Amino acid sequence: MLAMVLSAVGDFARPKIDYHALAPEIILAAGICLVLIVDLFIAESKKWLTATIAGVVLIASVLPLVTLAVIGDDTRSMFGGRYVVDQFSLIMKAMFLIIGYVVVLLSTNEIEEGGYHQGEYYVLLLASVLGMVMMTSARDLVSIFVALEFLSIPAYMLAAWRKRDSKSNEAGVKYYLLGVFASGVMLYGMSLIYGITGTTKLTEIGAFITLDGKFSGLEALAIVFIVVGFAFKVSAVPFHNWAPDTYEGAPTPVTAFLSVGSKAGGFVALVSLVYLAFPQARDVWQPFMFVLAALTMTVGNVLALKQTNIVRMLAYSSISQGGFILMPFVVAGTKAAETSLKTIVVYLLVYASTNLGVFAVVIAVSRKTRSGEISSFGGLLSYAPGLTWVMTFFLASLAGIPPFGGWFAKLNAFRAVLEGGTGFGYAIAIIGAVNTVIAFGYYGSVMRQMWMNPVPDGDTTPIKMPSSLTAALGITAIATIVLGILPQLVLRFGDLQDLTGAVAGK
Amino acid sequence: MDFITNDNWLLTVGTFLPLAGVLVMMFIPRGNELLHKQIAVLTAVATLGVGIFTLFQFNFNKAGSLQFWVDAEWIPVIKSGYTIGLDGMSLPLYILSMIVTLFVMIYSWDHIPNPGNPKAFLMLMLVLQVGMAGTFVAQDLILFFVFFELVLLPMYFMIGVWGGEQRQYASLKFFLYTMFGSALMLVAFLALFWQVQKTNPDAVFSIPYLIGHSGDLSRPVQIWIFSGMFIGFAVKVPMFPFHTWLPDAHTQAPTQGSVILAAILLKLGTYGFIRIAIPILPVAAKAWAPYIGGLAVIGIIYGALGCLAQTDMKRLIAFSSVAHMGFVMLGISTLTPLGFNAAIFGMVAHGLITGMLFFVSGSVKDRYHTLEIKRLSGILKQMPKMGWIMGFCAMASLGLPGLAGFWGEFPAIVSAYSPAAGLSQPLFRVYMVIASVGTVLAAGYLLWLFQRVAFGEPTAEFAGLGADGDDPHGASAHGAVHGGAHVTHAVGAAVNDDHEHEAIHDVKISEWIAWAPFLVGIVVLGVYPQLLFRILDPATQVALQAFGKG
Predict the structure, then answer these.
(1) For chain B, which has fewer Cβ within 10 Å, the N-terminal or C-terminal residue?
(2) DSSP character for A505?
(3) For B370-395, what is the mean pLDDT?
(4) What is the pLDDT of residues A365-386, one digit of tens each?
(5) Angle at which helices B425-454 and B282-308 cross, to 10°
(6) Of B177, B171, B178, residue with least CA distance to B157
């Protein structure tokens, strides 16, 4: 008995680990421990240190990404191709780390002034970011699932961070229950896939699930279950119900993080699955994606029109934006596969910078008005012209008006679906075009409040901007404008060959 | 098509120079209003200076080629470049946009509409200028789209913040209409690109390239793509069924907004037709031409009848825009060089004339605080100079020979007599007759307006307000203010009590400066139209190559 175990151990070959490629994850993991330990030993008045450390850790994790990008574009594959660092994952990792950094900037004053547990907050935030970073490299069903839970579970807790506020509790519980339910559905789909193919490695699944006769109803069911699981994560209609309540109840910096970070995490996983595991099963997921995309952008838009609370409005707006990110998936199995991938990458980058910027303004304004109503933005131009202009830029970007990032993301989405040239592609292009116009209804209403309406309570004392918030606004505003005027800067990333092992649509 | 790449920095500077002013103004506190006005006017003067320099550098003997041609890399991944150029068709509109912006700025010197804030107002106007000039120089579809959209937000805010009572409704309507059109237009651009790319793997978004390589597209494909562009441009023009945003936007916009809207923004749509839709998709253009012509004449008649029904002077002028743009579109729909020349001439003339009419109505509103036609009367008595300027513009607008308006309308009607080969001659001759009736109606509504507003005695509520002479600070005028107010209360007319009527004085110095170039332009172009036709003709010949000699 013992001999058997020992002999099995003897067979175990230590996997080759590329420490350079793993450096961001390692730094993050070390940073989590560091914050945890530091938090134990410092006085309550010095807890702000944890925020600083978290910020430094996030920036430090970007450095190895830079060196990796500079050294060359050879892919670094580990654990038998189950954990891969390629161009796609590099750009996405950089995005998640910067999202994390901006969220730290947004949180600093909110969390400190709210008297919440700062140390724990940043530990959980870093853990969630680590999950996202792992997601970009995961090329195996198991590691995708682990990464997903890693990014979700801290987020459940962050959503309920204002623990004396029943709305925040509701946010956390709702998010948790639906998230777990989604994980269950997804896991069931994954188990079916494993049962059919006998492997969990994405590229091997991709080679197995083909169209030549072996394509079965069971496979279709498994794929649909997995996609549904992620549809919950990216809050695609009709799996979106948790989003508005969670976004409204959670502390605003957490909302910003959820609406950008965890949503992008879901999309990254979808990209890996669609491009690596199911490229041949496009007849299953393309129509499904069409329905999801069309419903998501339309329902999100229409419901956003009715909102009076800015955060709820932004929740529906982010649902609708998610519909636009789903748009390229409709043609991701056709000859437009490469354009679609590029589009998704660009859209995520633009959406992240713009949406974080919007939340930065919302946080800044609510520091003064103490209100979440859209009408509290009335007359902002008269006492905070700078914020008004910047917010106008962000909203214009979300609405897709040049020359701000959003137009280019939308243009690319249209470009991709039209390149596909399928009936579904043309149909979703028209639906998308109409939705672009509807969306201006609610983005414009915020602009109208800021520019055209009087200050509701006549109080025009200027807004005091903490420096961290100003920095967050600066980063996001510059990114939004630069992405709109010189999109070529980021478009170098996101080529199909960047996603290692992807089978181009045939 | 050949390109001339002389002095290729000129257009870039001319287009983006206003942004320099915006940047400077950004860092100056809002309270310093005079400085803001100075910087804005200075920027506009500098921009126009670059424009005039461009005019001197322009090779008029080769007005048919794209000059100052630049084809730089911008977004190679999507095959879109920073491609700009200027030919005889775009030159007049490019310069016109600079002129209009400058003189609107000068007019703004002492006419900043409520609620003030010249900093934001002037900054938006400068951004607007970038978008307008950029649209006229862009030779790449994506670049064109960016500039085309760039004008939306500034105009939205201009109407929504500084407009009349219904400003929020009007601005949103304006925005949604235009955005709907441009979203479909963008889809059409992209579809065009992919269709061309099927046979030309190295396709790019450059307009001259697409003109040269769209021949392989099948007729149905062309027609579908054209319809997307049609909606985008027709909303902007605006053509008949898409026009309903225009009266609201014009009526509610501040004077400056109305002038820019009428003088330049409407031209972006017609320009899109002659620069993009028709040259790239000649087959579809031919299929669509009868319908475009039909909608154009409906617009002429509908606009004229709409004018006759208006009770508000500004709204009336707005409806007259619909009619005038109908003439422009009729000229375009004939697909002949004569029609195109007439159309572009009509655009420039309409910009000057209707721009002037909006200026005048803005100034009338400043003095009387109303534009309701039945409350206005006897302007000629109270403000003889203003009254005559208005009469002059009305004459120009109805197409009196010798003034600029004539050379937009008359050739457009004539061109409908013999449309391009392949178009139904009888049909276009019917259009021609209907359009001629439209000119009669135009004379009707404009003269009727002038007669009601300018002739006769001032109405009772304003009767005492006339300035006796040109001295607005005189004691007699001051007395008249109070007298007038009492009269008002006595007759119980519905007057806004928030403000006391000031003495009404005639054309002010800033108005003279702002208006003089418009008035001179109307006369000069009317007397010597060859000035413009000379540079238009070679370019329209090139644009219409696909249709043979009309």
Answers:
(1) N
(2) -
(3) 86
(4) 988 888 888 888 888 888 888 8
(5) 30
(6) B171
| Residue B470: pLDDT over 70 | no
User: In terms of Cα–Cα distance, which of A30, A253, A23 is closest to A121?
Assistant: A253
Please, which residues have CB within 8 angstroms of residue B401's CB and are 6 or more apart in sequence? Answer: B410, B526
Which residues in chain B are contacts of A444 at CB distance < 8 A? Answer: 156, 172, 175
Asked whether the predicted pLDDT for residue B500 surpasses 60, the reply is: no
Rounded CA gap, A313 and A321, in Å? 12
Query: Given pLDDT bands bounded at 50, 70 and 90, which one contains residue B240?
Result: confident
For B84, phi then psi, to 5°, come to -130, 155
Question: DSSP characters for B165-202?
Answer: TTHHHHHHHHHHHHHHHHHHHHHHHHHHHHHHHHH-TT
Cα torsion A465, A470, A473, A478 to 10°: value is 140
Using the structure block, give the residue that is written with the tokens 């701000």.
A404
What the block records as the tokens of B147 is: 């500039």
A491 and B CB contact within 8 Å: yes
- CB neighbours (10 Å) of residue A497? 13
Is the dihedral angle over the CA atoms B284, B286, B288, B289 positive or is it negative? positive
Picking from B77, B186, B187, the nearest residue to A488 by CB comes out as: B77
Q: Which residue in B182, B285, B283, B310 sits closest to B234, CA to CA?
A: B182
> Does B548 or B239 have the greater pLDDT score?
B239
CA A311, chain centre distance (Å): 17
B298 close to B239: Cβ distance less than 8 angstroms: no
- A327-350 tens-digit pLDDT: 999 888 888 888 888 889 889 999
By the CB < 8 Å criterion, does A306 face chain B? no
Nearest residue in A to B150, CA atom? A402
- pLDDT tier at A91, thresholds 50, 70, 90: confident
Predicted ipTM?
0.84
Question: Which residues in chain B have their CB less than 8 angstroms from residue A403's CB?
Answer: 146, 150
- Is-contact B435 B300, C-beta < 8 A? yes
| Residues of chain A numbered 440-459 and touching chain B (CB < 8 Å) | 440-441, 444, 447-448, 451-452
Please state, in angstroms and as integers, the Cα–Cα distance from residue A395 to each residue in A245, B126, B260, B511, following that order: 22, 21, 25, 37
What pLDDT does residue A71 have?
Answer: 80
pLDDT in tens, B85-134: 888 889 999 999 999 999 999 888 888 887 878 888 999 999 999 999 99
Distances (CA, A) of B269 to B185, B354, B530: 11, 17, 25
A393 pLDDT band, cuts 50/70/90, is very high
Q: Which helix (H) or strand (E) holds A84?
A: strand A83-85
Q: Tokens 């459940």 identify what position? A: A156
d(CA A432, CA B228): 14
Q: Is pLDDT at A126 greater than 90 in this prediction?
A: yes
Which tens digits make up the pLDDT trace of A13-33? 777 788 888 999 999 999 999
CB atoms within 10 A of CB A441: 16
The span from the CA of B393 to the CA of B29, in Å, is 39
Q: Which residues of B touch A430 (CB under 8 A)?
A: 187
* The predicted structure's pLDDT at residue A73: 63
- Residues B417 and B432 sit within 8 Å (Cβ to Cβ): yes
| CA pair distance B468, B480, nearest whole angstrom | 10
Task: Tell whether A423 lies on the interface with B, counting CB pairs under 8 A.
Answer: no
pLDDT at B186 over 70: yes
Rounded to a whole number of angstroms, the distance from the CA of A276 to the nearest CA of chain B is 24
pLDDT at residue A212, rounded to an integer: 59
